[in-house]
User: Which sequence fits this backbone?
């Protein structure tokens, strides 16, 4: 099902008109000049709109249902992916996909949040919100990667950890906290990529890394705009106002020195050209993996420690 965001509509209207003219083109009637003019106009309009998106518009774009998810990027970037299941305590959590794969000719461990494309898939994936068993599965496989010396790549895309009663009873907070502890001490390179939503502790549980990369129209925040609005103003409809003050856009996170690299997306966003987005991400992953693989275990651990010790801006009075 096609989903069009409000600010995308002027661009799509021009693109439909271009397609109509291409269909009407015959041997006797040539619309080539008009098509070229409209294509230039559409490109300029796209650049103007996407150059200055508001925080709330970026949130909407990060949640676009056609946006590539973890399994899409694994299909583009990885070969020989073997999915591994279960936390060995409760069950497998489909909201997190993980396993062994080959990237750029070498073995890696890949772990990521996974949303669904339709209602049935979202029910299966719990809308990309893992329970504690999902994070324990991730921890189990990260420790496995540590024992075998495999670099770890995580893909972050979740509104947050599932807040249901069952998840809390099974130790949601402990599972997230344990992941932070384990990731801090793993003796292998870790790269985390925010590909869509990076929501709260549910994102951070896969985000303690040597390098944090963010796609241009992704977000990373301590809480969702709706959750923030419901707490501050007791009114979830003020989510757009909350997005303004959360500084959650990728470029804001990069300016705050939380993210290490901002990866440009194809014109119109990753959902308009998933392959192009994957190619840009692949280039960045290769560069960072090459640099991290050249570091000793001691240097990797020290760099990760220093990164998080220096994160944040504060003022003493």
Assistant:
């Amino acid at each position: 099902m096609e989903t069009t965001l409000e600010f995308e509509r002027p661009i799509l209207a021009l693109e439909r008109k271009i397609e109509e003219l291409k269909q009407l083109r015959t041997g006797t009637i040539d619309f080539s000049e008009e098509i070229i003019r409209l294509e230039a106009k559409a490109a300029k309009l796209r650049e103007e709109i996407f150059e200055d998106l508001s925080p709330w518009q970026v949130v909407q774009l990060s949640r676009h249902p056609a946006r590539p998810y973890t399994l899409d990027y694994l299909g583009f970037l990885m070969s020989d992916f073997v999915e591994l299941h279960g936390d060995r305590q409760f069950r497998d959590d489909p909201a997190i996909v993980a396993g062994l794969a080959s990237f750029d000719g070498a073995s890696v461990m890949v772990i990521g949040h996974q949303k669904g494309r339709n209602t049935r898939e979202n029910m299966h994936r719990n809308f990309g919100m893992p329970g504690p068993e999902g994070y324990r599965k991730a921890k189990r496989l990260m420790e496995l990667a540590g024992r075998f010396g495999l670099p770890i790549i995580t893909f972050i895309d979740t509104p947050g950890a599932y807040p249901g009663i069952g998840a809390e009873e099974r130790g949601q907070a402990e599972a997230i906290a344990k992941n932070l502890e384990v990731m801090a001490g793993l003796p292998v390179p870790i790269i985390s990529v925010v590909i869509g939503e990076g929501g709260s502790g549910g994102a951070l549980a896969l985000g303690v890394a040597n390098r944090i990369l963010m796609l241009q129209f992704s977000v990373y925040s301590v809480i969702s705009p709706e959750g923030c609005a419901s707490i501050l103003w007791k009114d979830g409809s003020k989510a757009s106002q909350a997005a303004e003050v959360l500084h959650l856009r990728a470029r804001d996170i990069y300016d705050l020195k939380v993210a290490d690299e901002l990866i440009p997306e194809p014109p119109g966003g990753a959902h308009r050209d998933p392959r192009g987005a994957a190619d840009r991400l692949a280039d960045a992953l290769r560069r960072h993996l090459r640099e991290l693989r050249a570091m000793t275990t001691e240097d990797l651990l020290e760099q990760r420690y220093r990164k998080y010790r220096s994160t944040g801006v504060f003022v003493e009075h």
User: Anything to note?
Assistant: Strands lie at 79-83, 96-103, 106-113, 152-158, 190-199, 211-215, 219-221, 261-263. Residues 32-51 form the longest helix (20 residues).
